[in-house]
Amino acid sequence: MTIINDETFDGDVEVESGGTLVTTVYYLSGNGNFTLAAGATLEIGSPAGITSDGSDGNIQMTGTLSYSPGANYVYSGIDPQVPGDGLPSSFTNLTIDNPDGLTLASTITVTGVLYLTDGIIHTGLDYALIVESTDENAIVGGSATSYVNGTLERGVDATNTNAYNFPIGNNPYTPVEVVFTSGGDDGTITATTTPEDHFDIENSEFDENYTVNRYWTLEASGFVNPFEYDATFNWVVTDEDGDFDWESARVGKYDGAWSYPAVSEPAQTETSTTITGQTSFSDF
Fold first, then answer.
1. Across the chain, which distance is largest between two alpha carbons, in Å?
2. CA dihedral in degrees (195, 164, 111, 1; nearest 10)?
3. pLDDT of residue 203 exceeding 90
4. What is the pLDDT of residue 2?
5. Where do the domains of the chain lie?
6. pLDDT of residue 1
7. What is the DSSP letter of 199?
8. 130: Cβ–Cβ under 8 A, 6 or more apart, which residues?
9. Residue 267 above 90 pLDDT?
10. How far is CA 235 from the centre of its chain?
11. Is 45 helix (H, G, I), strand (E, B) or coil?
């Protein structure tokens, strides 16, 4: 069902499992209850998202508003959006399809799939977007026009040779891919990137005038058994110092002290490099 005008209902409204309500820029009002059932989908167009009391956003009914954690939420506005305090803190699938983006006001957890179709999700400094599933396909998409600007945490399974993309950046898009080559269990990895030289670069072997002015922070939790992985880091030309030479580039790993991982030379490109055989996470 697609709303093509503001609508008022005298009674309850329920979007049942398998159903989809597309609100675009309009809203539902009335004196009844609103229920979004598990397995249903709500496409949200309001800049205010969905609110818990119906005071703003696409659903403005005066009764009880119930948004299931088992439902799917699509943010598809034409102006910058916030989720709204009606969005559950944990829910099944999230889609961003708004070129003006979505800015979080709290940490949210996606238990199913994150679809990065169009637009940037801004987490801010205090919040995170968590993708709980360890399925390597739990994040679909990721591009220069749709990524996570801020903190992205996702579940990973080191027991298989799975490749996990972390579609992060802060204008520009500078993602990381982690490929496990061995391991005994699963855990989580939290990824961020900072668009400047590392704060401890003066104690490294690097000349700060010949670097990519960016570093990535990968933090692991939940692992009990040892693991090994390769990682590919991507940047853009505007991150580079003028005298940076990608063909001789190497990577520094900082966890209180500097080390210099092996680089896969065949995998290097003008704006990416791959390190191999790593057994811990840190700053890179």
1. 71
2. 80
3. yes
4. 86
5. 1-150, 156-284
6. 85
7. T
8. 107, 108, 109, 110, 153, 154, 188
9. no
10. 17
11. coil
pLDDT at 258 over 90: yes
Using alpha carbons, select from 136, 188, 138, 180 the residue that is nearest to residue 160.
180
Which residue matches tokens 């496990």?
Answer: 180
Average pLDDT, the chain: 96
* Tokens encoding 261: 């991982």
Quote the CA–CA distance of 276 and 278 in Å, as a whole number: 6
From the list 138, 129, 30, 48, the residue with the least C-alpha distance to 86 is: 48
For residue 15, what are its two tokens? 């979007």
| Chain center to CA of 169 | 10
Residue 265 has pLDDT above 90, yes or no: no
Report yes or no: 156 and 130 within 8 Å, Cβ to Cβ: no
CB 258 within 8 A of CB 266: no
- Per-residue confidence (pLDDT) for residue 10, from 0 to 100: 86
What band does 280 get if pLDDT is binned at 50, 70 and 90?
very high
| Tokens read off for 167 | 């579609």
